[in-house]
Sequence to fold (199 residues):
Amino acid sequence: MSEFIIAGGVFMWPLLACSVLIISISIERLWFLQLRLVSPNGLKSQIINLYNKDLLSQRQSEEISQLSSLGYLLINCIKYKNLPRENLESKIEEKASEVKHLLDRNLTMLGTLATISPLLGLLGTVVGMITAFTGLSEITGANPDVLAEGISQALITTAFGLFIAVPGLVMHKYFEQKISHLLINLQAEVSDFIDVINK
Fold:
């Protein structure tokens, strides 16, 4: 592996950095976009039960708000429950945009890394080809073995860049789709909750 990296030249190091960042962001997003951390099953029913029995203390509200995105939105629904329905929905839309921002965190960077990886690889290849042809003209002339070796080394960066970019783009699209699904789920839960508390 180390020989492969050394053969690829100086552009292999930023590509390696990109690969580490893509893996790190993907693991972080896989953890934080779990359904139990965003929209836990049964949470709405528990909050409705506590609310109807007037057992929801300030401390409980803060804890529920911090545990999940759904909890944060539902507690804000209770906070603004005395507003007219239209104003309440407007307030919750503002809070939902904050939740969306948190869910989207690092996705732009993931997409950028997946996009620039093949470009960095291509740049490494172009520089490698220039070096190979320059070396030929100065030292060995038109030796096909040296030329083949130089081109082979130059193409390593393009191959590695594509190897990084493909899974990066797949993960980016997967997270976008997952966030859309989670937001739809949150919207449905919040809408049902508003129907209960804002009659």
Summary: The chain has a mean pLDDT of 88.
